[in-house]
């Protein structure tokens, strides 16, 4: 199983033509990787109807030649040629050039734009992401592999969840085991939170020590060939109170209710509404997290998003997270998150770590 970069490039050129652009300057590293295979940074891609050009420098030149498919690799001498000049010599006169507006600083773009003044420049967002939201079988396999690493790393780390261990120590242990199992670094900065700090949806691990009866929320992921996994589990150390149990069961019920709706054609608005209803009916509506999930791939958070704003019907090949949560300030919180791929018959779960509430 291999990536068909030539097919991706053809599809993107067709999309550019439909939008009325003669070229696009691709600035986001993940978007460049999606179209070319190049996994480094310090690179810019220019896509026209006649060519695909990757502009880099001496640090990445040979690596880019080895990794890219369907691209001419240009090694720019940064001391003697500006980026704008290099781009300009690969464009036809009076081109209408779109550019990845979300991935460039104002300072860099002003310098480039001055040298491209002979062309029409248009800022765009989400054009390549429209192609990326539906994953092919190779992409799904990479996310599955990343999820499997995360599953195994968690299984190896669970014996360390004992009173006295700190959030920071457990996070480091989990990250070490993911990398030992083959992860290319972390999908994102690991979230490991105890007790009342578990009410922070995206808190940083601290030196707080674990105690009996504490909530534990951990959110983490591995990376394989640039593709990310994203999983959250919540636990209680020792014996759970009645309120803690109600919170956990409510989140689990909300996740299952949303999952039961997942199939091609299901609308993201409806999934989000179902999860919110379950949480509200249990009396925790004011503490519900904002948004049920998101797409997953080369980005940690990519389209489609599952929230109150995204009117999108799921398609076969969407890889998404389903992650309801309840966060009560000063008390604690619970989130459960799994990665799934939408299939013709419904969905397949990619994350398989068990969900025992009490450990």
Automatic annotation (TrEMBL):
Ranges of residues in domain Creatinase N-terminal: 8-134
Domain Peptidase M24 as annotated: residue spans: 142-344
Transmembrane segments: none
Matching Pfam families: Creatinase_N, Peptidase_M24
Matching PANTHER family: AMINOPEPTIDASE (PTHR46112), AMINOPEPTIDASE YPDF (PTHR46112:SF3)
Protein name, entry field: Peptidase M24
Lineage, highest ranks first: Bacteria, Pseudomonadati, Pseudomonadota, Gammaproteobacteria, Alteromonadales
């Amino acid at each position: 199983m291999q990536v068909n970069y030539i097919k991706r490039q053809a599809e993107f050129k067709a999309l550019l033509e439909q939008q009325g652009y003669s070229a696009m300057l691709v600035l986001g590293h993940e978007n460049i990787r999606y179209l070319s295979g190049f996994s480094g940074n310090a690179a810019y891609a220019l896509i026209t109807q006649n060519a695909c050009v990757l502009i880099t420098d001496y640090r990445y030149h040979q690596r880019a030649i080895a990794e890219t498919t369907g691209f001419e690799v240009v090694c720019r001498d940064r001391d003697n040629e500006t980026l704008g000049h290099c781009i300009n010599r690969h464009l036809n006169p009076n081109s209408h050039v779109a550019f990845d507006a979300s991935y460039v600083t104002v300072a860099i773009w002003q310098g480039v734009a001055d040298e491209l003044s002979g062309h029409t420049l248009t800022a765009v967002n989400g054009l390549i992401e429209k192609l990326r939201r539906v994953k092919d079988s190779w992409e799904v396999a990479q996310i599955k592999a990343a999820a499997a690493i995360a599953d195994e790393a968690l299984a190896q780390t669970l014996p360390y969840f004992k009173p006295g261990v700190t959030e920071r120590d457990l996070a480091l242990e989990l990250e070490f085991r993911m990398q030992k199992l083959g992860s290319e670094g972390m999908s994102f900065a690991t979230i490991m939170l105890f007790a009342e700090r578990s009410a922070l949806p995206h808190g940083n691990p601290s030196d707080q020590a674990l105690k009996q009866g504490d909530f534990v929320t951990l959110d983490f992921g591995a990376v394989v060939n640039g593709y990310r996994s994203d999983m959250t589990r919540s636990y209680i150390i020792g014996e759970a109170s009645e309120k803690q149990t109600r919170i956990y069961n409510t989140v689990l019920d909300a996740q299952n209710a949303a999952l039961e709706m997942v199939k091609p054609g299901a609308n993201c608005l409806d999934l989000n509404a179902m999860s919110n209803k379950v949480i509200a009916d249990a009396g925790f509506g004011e503490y519900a997290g904002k948004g049920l999930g998101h797409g997953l791939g080369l980005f940690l958070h990519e389209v489609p998003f599952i929230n109150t704003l995204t009117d999108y019907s799921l398609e076969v090949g969407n890889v998404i997270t389903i992650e309801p949560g309840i966060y009560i300030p000063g008390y604690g919180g619970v989130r459960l998150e799994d990665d799934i791929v939408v299939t013709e018959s419904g969905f397949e779960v990619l994350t398989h770590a068990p969900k025992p509430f009490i450990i």
